[in-house]
Queue: 4 jobs
Job 1
Amino acid sequence: MTTRETKEFDGITLERVREHVWEIPQEGEMRVPARVLASEPLLEQIGDDKTLQQLKNATHLPGITKHALCMPDGHQGYGFPVGGVGATDAEKGCISPGAVGYDINCGVRMMRTNLTYDDLKGKEEELVDSLFANVPSGLGGGGVVEEGIDTVEEILARGMDWALERGYATEADLAHCEDEGMRPDADPDAVSQKAKDRGKNQIGSLGSGNHFLEVQRVTDVFRPEVGEAYGLEEDQIVVLIHCGSRGLGHQTCTDYLRRIEKEHADLLEDLPDKELAAAPAGSELAEEYYGAMCAAINFAWVNRQLIMHRTRQVFARVFGRDWEDMEMELLYDVAHNIAKKETHTVEGEERELYVHRKGATRAFPAGHPEVPAAYRDVGQPVIIPGSMGAGSYVLRGGDESMGLTFGSTAHGAGRVMSRTQAKQEFWGETVQDELRDQEKIYVKAQSGATVAEEAPGVYKDVDEVVRVSDDLGIGDKVARTYPVCNIKG
């Protein structure tokens, strides 16, 4: 009998199952084993904070199946690790707001154009200034649309259908968004008045923190046939938008965490961390949270859609052409803080599960019925942003994703440094100057502190994160992009 290679971090032992797959064996009160998908360098970084303990804690969730999983970009989060995936039985398990996170449907969308990098040269500063002036960002209020509660409730119920009706979206935009931009299980009545009040002045706004709008150029296409299906080619200009449900989503998470603490204290007592707070599947509270979460998901899709609409208008002014002439079309929009009812095969049996993806991206392979028709033959697009100095990737859902990760992969580079530490290590203005002078990347933000918090040195190596995903076959490399202009809150 051969013994497996092991590694230990703060008393937690991981066994190497195979290349890039490490397992924390089931023991004690754990309901399933936990698995980390990482190369050795990434595992060292993942083991450097509380990620592994949080992952181990997640295995205590009622009804969790197969494994609790940590993607290659994993790092410490609130209760449940960022980069975490946990699938719980939709009938006998639970749904956990803590395993979704505060920024419900934080996600990314990429918009193609027919512009080349040469078309953009010389216009970088004009473009970054105009985007910054016209796309609301930063903490607090201010949005592309600022209307009453009735509008918020309509957005919560209808998602991007509302944007289409109002002229902010096209039919093609809906066809190229996860779930066509609308969760039918949304229940606006399950969203509190306080959450709606927080959202009404933030419809179409980036917010702050790690959220951004970035103009990029495609530097590499690794799978030409998939790149062609996605409409990507080298030297092309694309736009990446990263944000979520703003104060509305944050308040919704807070509301339900507090309610769970009151109404399901018994379940909470059985969990090693109260931040994993979960409602039992089938309970009134679980149904209400699912309806509220789906409504916040719809809000986030409309938020990103309105930012894209405003971006199209800015490009039209800067380049003196209609956005349609520049073929500014949505490639795809993916969510990465979400719990969805999905059917997966577990031990030969099809089961309905709540698949929690917190800082993880859905990555369904070719042929899956939930992949948009335009991409079903090649697989779902997956968009993985790196830091503002390192570039980003477009992947496609890999053939191994359903068996290994409940159809999931990483969502970004993943932090290696806290925001507080980053502000001690970096000076925002210096970061901006170096990016402009050395890399020809133009960054504009509400404050220098925001730039310092998001400096390239704060993040893991996105190339390594994507390499692991590609090697495992959960998300296959299609194209790489590199920043040209970046705006932040």
Note: The longest helix spans residues 284-319.
Job 2
Amino acid sequence: MTDRVLAIDGGNSKTAVLLVDADGQVLAQVRGPGASPQNVGLARSLEVFDGLVREAARQAGLSPDEPIARHTAAYLAGADLPREELELQAEIERHGWSGTSVVGNDTFALLRAGTTDGIGVAVVCGAGINCVAVAADGRTHRFPALGRISGDWGGGGHIGSEALWLAVRAEDGRGTPTALLPAVIAHFGTATAADAVERIHFGEAEADEHELCRVLFEVAATGDRVALDVVDRLVEEVIVLAEVSLGRLDLLEEPVDVVLGGGVLTGTGDIVVGAVRDRLSATAPMARIRVVDLPPVVGAALLGLDAIGGGPGAELRLRSAYAEQPAEQALDLASGG
């Protein structure tokens, strides 16, 4: 059979599956709901993945009895520790989609999507925040990325909860006056922040931290000092993650790519990216800041092509084809198949 790579990007909010041949030609692309094992459990994660994979095979015109791919490259949110990667890989292999498979954290796919060789540092800030680094000699550095218990600060959910916290304290006198207060009240459509808190407490409203994160950045753009302090804290966290990773791999004085991705970093203009670029130059003067303009599933597919010996032509073809067919055009399986 023609060599094929099955790529899976399993995020907290959505899952993307891409099937490509060894020449980098896109055979199928499918999207579905988020299926992080930490959020929905291992069994449900594999149920979602399997439904999307089978749909991709159907799109590609493959027979149900035909092997889907030579290799599966699955890069998943929730694969934060080696133990989790091994458990997920065993489950994926049990489904028999391909002859070989690799499971890793989805931040590695972001790194590959933003570089030509998968070497450098990637910091992602979407639902959560994470950072990985890979040196040219194969050494890696990563963080557990398990939330507050592993020392993390940031991510859309965290920043959104900060927006609500700061608004409530501004209203009741414990905090600093801020434009976040009327913005949060308007978001919930209540008379006061206290009313919003009461509705959330009784299950009559969703906290919706990710939308509140957007609200915070909108308020910060008006110059509100309280909101800007949160943005500055995020900038510092991104820089610390990158600096520590670069330092652990002895790359602070080397020309190296620092890839930024995730909705919080890429969807808020230059307020974070520009500040990171300016401040990181003091400790890593040769670092090149890159913002990923391709979905991480492309990085997963590129890592899969690397694994089966795909060449530069395959990479170029895949990048070009995916740029011509953005993810929004892929089949959206909201039910997960």
Note: The radius of gyration is 21 Å.
Job 3
Amino acid sequence: MSGTLVLVRHGQSEWNLKNLFTGWKDPDLTELGVEEAKTGAEALKGTGLKFDIAFTSNLIRAQRTLDLIMQGIGQTGLEVIRDEALNERDYGDLAGLNKDDAREKWGEEQVHIWRRSYDVPPPGGESLKDTGARVWPYYMTEILPRVLRGETVLVAAHGNSLRSLVMILDGMSREEIVKLNLATGVPMVYKLNADSTVASKEVLGDMSKAH
């Protein structure tokens, strides 16, 4: 057995609530998002895990989720590394648009392809494959070596940057990963073997609220 990796998707943001494409835009958490982060912290507290380091994106919704979790588990002095490699998928021209307005402009089918295909990016933006192309190298060089040294590592990030990680950790196909929704504020605890494969995975909460 090697170390432990915990992944948490940020709580609901103001733009999630308004049904807007967010991407690299930087809205804060809603009151519900704050509560989701606190609930995730309670679940983590119950495990008794002590973190060595935390990683998050350059976006406030992930950083604030991380702050709330660290407060909730009483580990506020933790070293935190922020990097845009962990940012949400860039939605390009869709960012800031209401999802219904986007469907009116480009059509239901085209918007569905942009949202749910693996390798078709929206105009000026990234596909899930593109997102993985920046998340995976960062994981391999910055995060994984610490876990393999036996450290306990917390990552607070976004739906698509975390889906990219879950895809390789869980050995999911392109077809499987595009159907996967990660619940907000719900920690996923991975224990890794020395060869970086997954020894065990535990989801600490209600995955039924994934959206």
Note: The chain has one domain: 4-160+170-205.
Job 4
Amino acid sequence: MTDAATLAGLDPATLNDVLRLAGSTGFDRIQEQIRRTGGCTDPIRLQGSTVTRDRETGHVLHHYSTDTEPGGVLRIACGNRRASRCPSCAWTYAGDTYHLIRAGLVGDPAKGTPHTIRDHPRVFATLTAPSFGPVHNRPGNRPCRCGTRHSEGGPELGTPLDPESYDYAGAVLWNNHASELWRYFTIYLRREIAKRAGLTQKAAREQSRVSFGKVAEYQKRGAVHFHAVIRFDGPDGPDSPPPAWATLDLLTDAIRAAAARVTVDVDPAGDQPARTLTWGTQIDVRPIRAFGDGEEITEQAVASYVAKYATKAAETTGTVDRRIGNKEALTLLGVPDHPRRLIEACLDLHPLYPDRKLRDWAHMLGFRGHFSTKSRRYSTTLGALRQVRADYRAAQQRAALGLPNPDDEEATTLTLAHWTYAGHGHTPGESWLAANIRRDIQHNREIAREELPALLDLEGAAT
């Protein structure tokens, strides 16, 4: 399983549990279950059974019960998207996000978009928050305003030059209303498109459709910003070409104008003044070219970038990935000064804006929206991708058991299932085993990724 030196480095409780597992009669099955979850960090434990019968005769074709499993439970992956919670499930989530975004860029008929989608105007837009005070940064080849040339990845990057004058309340209120800012942006975008096309909004909707897929990312200063693929379609969505007036330049101009129009008012409360929230002035809009056209922003790069940040959240700024009940917990958790002040601002503002639930989202620095969203007709859905994977695994299982496909017209089987929740997580020894399995899976993926170019070269030479 592993060498003695590795085992010797474990704490006594984990070592004893590893030895208990290794000596148990159900060790191979436990290992198989953990491997099937991909080495999930916090698996769901289920108890129950399934029975597959012949619908006409009632004869039992297959029966499964967790009574025969080690510990009487079946482990399934937790499905958490956060890499800080479960690297294994986050990897799957990132892969699904990648295919969802890519399908809306290159086309995939199986995912609801034709290959002609590559001819539609589309851009990669970034919308950011305004300034809440000067912060340490790396402005090109110039030193920071503090006079220092900071190293890349330095812990001081993104932190305020003067924490006492930094608008922490404004920062967390902006994060808290970021989803509303995005909603108003999508409304104004359609209006600006119609205005530039010289059409009424109704006429513009009848001739075109705007589709998008976006992801939220935290800057080092703790402010949320959005990356979005925004695409022009025809009136029937990706299956129809956009009208002649729906150009890349028109879309770019409309995005900038719409972002500049958006405002969200926050009423005064307590010692907090009235605020008008807006997008920052640093709005980046770049055209996405077909892969291989020599453009820096390619379909592959965009899909990979969005997928990367779909599994990250505020913990990238130094905060934690769980709710915080009080300020005392911040010291125990060792949260750095800047994110600590942002969290404290959330806790202080909660009584003033109770409907904004700032205390519940303090660990997210106030942000309460979804990290990845898309419009209805952009491409497929994450749920559909998960269902395809589940159906594939179910088909494999039926084939291994010799059971007919239930979708077959001649199939006469009926499956009855009963499951109950029995907890979650691992014992210390199981956690160690899952970490090793997860590491091996990741290692195999890296090897496969390195070997892929060589295999493609061999195929090219053979043809």
Note: The mean pLDDT is 88.
